[in-house]
């Protein structure tokens, strides 16, 4: 009986990957003060892109979403070249590929937690494998073609995926801001576009409950981009061909629509290593093994355990420093507190810049019908 209870506790105990996902989500959204005050962070860190899908307009977000930055760069292609975002995507992709989806993406964590709700699940099939190619179509149309055409021909920035589809923006940004009592006046700004995005969000939330990581598998263009790097990224799952007998247990147990371990649909979560009877699968960073199959020899565990404690200590220190800096010490936070004392009157204008740091009622909140509709102080509106 005690053994059964122990096994049950082990089954429900958070894995190392789950702790890393939680850590990453908190680091992506270190400005917790934003939820308490109903405003977004406007410091210089917002010009840097985070690796995962995390909305710029989330009250706690301390960085920019690479997908929004890519659309912004393509919209401005007629005026300047967005070398930064292309370089950062190349860097993230080469180093991690879709390991970002499996270990670091905050919205990926949300999907996995939704899927833990105990209901009947939809298993992967030939239909889901076909649907997995939909995200590449969305990437080509809504992330690349539409922003590029509108930016070059109409000189009008249109981040189509963020504006019309992205459920992360609706959940983290719009609903995150509307949840604060001080933002009730924003309810009057809601239109049919926001209603449509809420409907999309509800559909995807339900889909994630019944079908594992539905947004990640079928919709997410950022995952489609990172998937292009999966074959040669530095960190990822690796198969030892000398041990593999081709039984296919890894593919059958995987929740993603993979055809083989490490292909463009693989998120490198490493769960396949736990079911491989041949111990042929491991998670590696170059030549360094991060997760080896089977149990380590007892004599070899002392050094890894000591190194693990050091790494955890450093990670905890970094998180504490980030929380203290973004919530109390950042000059932008202090400036926002000063500006609250004399808020300027606001008027709605159109702008093509997603990261202007402009205000809505002194809160730095973008309009909810799209990330490129924001309010500026009246004296700046000629």
Low-confidence stretches: 295-300, 346-382
Number of strands: 5
Task: Report the helical percentage.
Answer: 40-55%
Radius of gyration: 22 Å
- SSE order in H/E notation? HHHHHHHHHHHHHHEHHEEHHEE
Q: Biggest sheet: strands, sense, closure? A: 3 strands, antiparallel
Distance N to C terminus: 76 Å
| Morphology | globular
Mean pLDDT: 85
Q: In terms of structural class, how would the helical and strand content be classed?
A: mainly alpha
Provide a descriptive summary of the structure in words:
With 382 residues, the protein is mostly helical. It has a domain of 261 residues. It is built from 18 helices and 5 strands. A 3-stranded antiparallel beta sheet has the order 1-2-3. The protein has a two-stranded antiparallel ribbon with strand order 4-5. The termini are far apart.
Task: Please supply descriptive tags for the structure shown above.
382 residues; mainly alpha; 3-stranded antiparallel β-sheet; two-stranded antiparallel ribbon; 5 strands; 49% helix; 6% strand; globular; disordered C terminus
Helix and strand topology:
Blueprint: H1 2-12, H2 16-28, H3 33-37, H4 66-75, H5 83-95, H6 99-104, H7 106-115, H8 126-131, H9 134-153, H10 160-164, H11 167-178, H12 192-210, H13 214-219, H14 221-227, E1 235-239, H15 249-253, H16 272-275, E2 281-285, E3 288-291, H17 302-329, H18 331-339, E4 346-350, E5 373-377
Antiparallel strand pairs: 1-2, 2-3, 4-5
Helix pairs in contact: 4-5, 4-9, 7-12, 9-14, 11-12
How would you summarize what this structure contains?
This protein is mainly alpha-helical.
